[in-house]
Design a protein that fits this description.
The structure holds 2 protein chains of 2 kinds. Chain A is mostly helical. Chain A has one domain. In chain A, helix 2 packs antiparallel against helix 3. Chain A starts with a helix and ends with a helix. By secondary structure, chain B is an all-alpha fold. Chain B has a domain of 41 residues. In chain B, 60% of the residues lie in helices and 0% in strands. At the A-B interface, helix 1, helix 3 and helix 4 of A face helix 2 and helix 3 of B.
């Protein structure tokens, strides 16, 4: 049954609708003809054959009419979801660009501040080095803290 | 035998579940995917305060860059979550 519905899903909407409606109309026509044709001469001989084909065709067509309505409802939902996904992917791309631009701008500002800070240190380098000598233990402690290891 | 094999493949193709609508997992911006740098270590032989201040200031800068990235990751997650939840 799954294979049947999978194969049906491959048929375009218009073709599927046409096939099912045509089957239903043919089923109704053949059933009606089969019921009343025996009252007319010449064609009366085909009445039994028309009924034999018409009734099963009518039943199968009614079954497929129900299936068609269901199939179309699912296709509509799929189309609606596809549209939503497309919009979401576009929104996602826009959000990514905004975040990327914002991050790059902020990092650029941090780097610019770093250049200014390093220049300021160079300006006062001689003065602060003449006033203070750092104990090697201080460097060791800071390196340990920066390394994050015991 | 070949025909039987073909029939088998055809019949099994009915068992495949086709998911018609899928949303691609959003790719994070390039700037967020770069790793944070390790903090800079000082030359153990130096006794200059200017060198110490310079390294500490540089490390502050690296921390700020990393902070920006972490904040952006959180913002990215919240934004993408909202967009994803809108597709229902």
């Amino acid at each position: 049954m799954d294979q049947l519905s999978w194969m049906i899903s491959l048929i375009p909407d218009a073709v599927l609708t046409l096939l099912v409606h045509a089957g239903l109309v043919a089923g109704v026509v053949l059933t009606v003809l089969g019921t009343f044709a025996d009252k007319f001469p010449f064609v009366g001989t085909y009445a039994k054959l028309a009924k034999l084909i018409g009734i099963p065709l009518l039943i199968i067509s009614i079954f497929f009419e129900g299936g068609l309505a269901n199939e179309m409802r699912w296709r509509e939902q799929v189309e609606s979801l596809k549209e939503k996904v497309k919009q979401a992917e576009e929104q996602s791309a826009v959000a990514n660009t905004q975040i990327d631009t914002s991050v790059k701008q902020k990092i650029k500002t941090v780097k610019e501040v770093q250049v200014v800070v390093q220049e300021r240190i160079k300006e006062v380098e001689k003065r602060i080095d003449s006033e203070c000598k750092v104990d090697p233990e201080v460097i060791s402690i800071l390196n340990q803290a920066a390394g994050g290891k015991k | 035998m070949k025909k039987l094999l073909l029939c088998g493949v055809f019949v099994l193709s009915g068992c495949t579940t086709t998911v018609p609508v899928t949303m691609n997992f959003p790719q994070a911006p390039e700037s967020l995917r770069a790793q944070c740098n390790a903090l800079k270590q000082m030359d153990p032989t130096t006794t200059k305060l200017s060198s110490l201040v310079g390294t500490v200031a540089e490390n502050y800068g690296m921390y700020q860059e990393c902070q920006i990235k972490v904040d952006a990751w959180n913002q990215w997650y919240e934004t993408q979550k909202k967009i994803h939840e809108g597709v229902k």
